[in-house]
Design goal:
The protein is mainly alpha-helical and about 90 residues long. About 45% of the residues lie in helices and about 5% in strands. The protein starts with a strand and ends in a 7-residue tail after the last helix.
Length: about 90
């Protein structure tokens, strides 16, 4: 976290933007195995799951931004992506 002139910037890796162009093996064995266990039977299904996971991570990042800006005291532990994640599990 860096502070410059009253502006606080926090960079976080949300694990988004997986490269599916190199095939499912580029996503990691744990992710592919989890998708196969969940019923994915093709590379397209696994790539779709990767895109859905990326979209979910992007949604959490946007929710953190919006709720952090709208919070009365500004961003806090209650407005982080980690704390908002359980609220967005089935969205």
């Amino acid at each position: 976290m860096a502070t410059q002139g009253g502006v606080r910037v926090r960079l976080t890796n949300f694990g988004a933007a997986a490269d599916v162009s190199a095939g499912p093996d580029s996503l990691g064995a744990a992710f592919v195995d989890a998708q196969l266990d969940a019923g994915a039977r093709s590379s397209l299904a696994i790539a779709g799951a990767a895109r859905a996971e990326d979209g979910h991570a992007l949604g959490l990042a946007l929710a953190e931004l919006v709720f952090g800006l709208m919070a009365a005291g500004g961003p806090s532990d209650r407005t982080t992506a980690v704390s908002l994640s359980p609220l967005c599990v089935n969205v």
